[in-house]
Amino acid sequence: xxxxxxxxxxxxxxxxxxxxxxxxxxxxxxxxxxxxxxxxxxxxxxxxxxxxxxxxxxxxxx
Length: 62
What we know:
Layout: E1 2-5, E2 8-11, E3 16-17, H1 18-24, E4 32-36, E5 39-40, E6 46-47, E7 52-57
Parallel strand pairs: 1-7
Antiparallel strand pairs: 1-2, 3-6, 4-5, 4-7
């Protein structure tokens, strides 16, 4: 699976839930939105090995 986040591409083997991807990238789920095929998905959504998601940061840093 491919994960796009802040201009970087990450790859993970096999399928996993969105919450597992969030943990692997050490992200706070309250600060992001995860998109699959351009639509938001929940942390329970399973992402297949040949699929791609995009993670968008929704909290400004300053």
